[in-house]
Amino acid sequence: MSAEIIDGKELAHELRISMKGEVLELKRDGLTPHLTVVLVGEDPASRSYVRGKQKATDETGISSDLIELSVDTSESELLQLIDKLNEDPSVHGILVQLPLPEQIGEQKVIESINPAKDVDGFHPFNIGRMMSGGDTFLPCTPYGILTMLKSKNIPIEGKHVVIIGRSNIVGKPVGQLLLNENATVTYCHSRTKDLKNHTTKADILIVAVGKPNVIKADYVKQGCTVIDVGVNRLDDGSLTGDVDFESVKHTASYITPVPRGVGPMTITMLLKNTIKAAKGLSD
Ligand code: GUN
């Protein structure tokens, strides 16, 4: 048996069609959602992600602009810019592409963004609201993963979710979101002993380590749902995930591919958060 593929690109396409309609209605009422993206430095991967985000906003009718700053921008220059964007009523969402150059404190920058414009969902205010279940911007990759699971009606309540990776962007918040859905959650990371002992107990396995093909079929229980968050570029230029797709697809019941998996869903949730920002976060 081969696993059913959760096609993130197709789901993203469907969701974006309905968002396009929603944006059109907002525009008729005189409100054009606007996202400002800030890119500091020349990192090619960041540049490519930013380009993808802008293409998606354009296609959905959301307006966006890109502010590019040189790699030697100081922390105070960036904070001043964010202050200005916080005050500008025509800017609904602010996204500062990470990582930032080392002279700039990432956490300080995240905390300087007005939480009502924090479409990444990284501000501690929004993380706190996510944990306590209030209205908030959910971080885009975890939100995309939750949407993918729900799109296939994959049961979450009472299921054992194992997450490999504990980043602030993916691992930690996705566990919290699935805990909110009544899953039992185990976090694994680089210091975890006997990884396989944990992963083979997972009903849903989420892999976000950033190393190609680390999860093989013998790490996965028969019938498990496998979500691959990794995006790794191989020497031949092709993209691959953290999961050995070809072997794991025979053991899993559902699996996300790379590309066409989680990536397109992350951007789609950014669009959703930008529309939400334009409409205003409730108190
Ligand atoms: N760098 C890698 N992923 C992300 C993301 O989701 N948001 C931002 N701002 N930077 C990133």
Automatic annotation (TrEMBL):
Record keywords, A-Z: Amino-acid biosynthesis, Histidine biosynthesis, Hydrolase, Methionine biosynthesis, Multifunctional enzyme, NADP, One-carbon metabolism, Oxidoreductase, Purine biosynthesis
Gene it is expressed from: folD
The Tetrahydrofolate dehydrogenase/cyclohydrolase catalytic domain, residue ranges: 6-120
Gene3D superfamilies hit by this protein: Leucine Dehydrogenase, chain A, domain 1, NAD(P)-binding Rossmann-like Domain
Family the entry assigns: Belongs to the tetrahydrofolate dehydrogenase/cyclohydrolase family.
Protein's name according to its UniProt entry: Bifunctional protein FolD
Pfam families (alphabetical): THF_DHG_CYH (PF00763), THF_DHG_CYH_C (PF02882)
Biological pathway: One-carbon metabolism; tetrahydrofolate interconversion
